[in-house]
Design brief:
The chain has 135 residues and is an alpha+beta fold. The chain has one helix at residues 4-26, and strands at 28-32, 41-47, 52-59, 69-80, 83-90, 101-108, 112-117, 128-134. The N and C termini lie far apart (49 Å).
Length: 135
């Protein structure tokens, strides 16, 4: 029984540090990779260390560098049975750009971030996948 406790404690520390490590990778600015051939907009997502995030929408042909819109929300990164899940809640709707819900974190490191949602939310889009590159 004495051998069991150190193994349990080390395992708990390891798994709790994994979430902290993934969260540290998530913090920062990410450019969403366009999913259409000729996009008219691009999006910059910023995840902050206080569990808030913003999505800035820019026009492709913008000359002033100012965003067309800035949307704010909250996120939570958790580990569920060996998978990382990201829950996103925007304060306002982005009209055709589904965000809210629980997302699987398919890949997350210092330069690439991929997430997938397979359950329909109130926006009516059951399957959505976003890919990002770190800025």
């Amino acid at each position: 029984m004495r051998k069991f406790w150190p193994v349990l404690i080390i395992t708990l520390i390891f798994f709790s540090s994994c979430v902290d490590r993934k969260t540290s990778f998530l913090i920062g600015k990410w450019e969403e990779v366009p999913r259409v051939v000729e996009p008219s907009r691009f999006y910059i997502w910023t995840f902050k260390d206080d569990n808030n995030f913003t999505i800035e929408t820019y026009a492709i042909d913008s000359t002033d560098g100012e965003p067309m819109a800035v949307n704010e929300g909250e996120y939570n990164l958790d580990r569920k049975s060996m998978e990382f899940r990201l829950t996103l809640e925007l304060e306002q709707d982005m009209g055709g750009h589904p965000i809210n819900g629980e997302w699987w974190v398919d890949e997350l490191d210092r330069s690439i971030f991929k997430m997938t949602r397979e359950s329909a939310d109130s926006d009516g889009n059951p399957f959505v996948r976003y890919e990002f590159v770190k800025l």
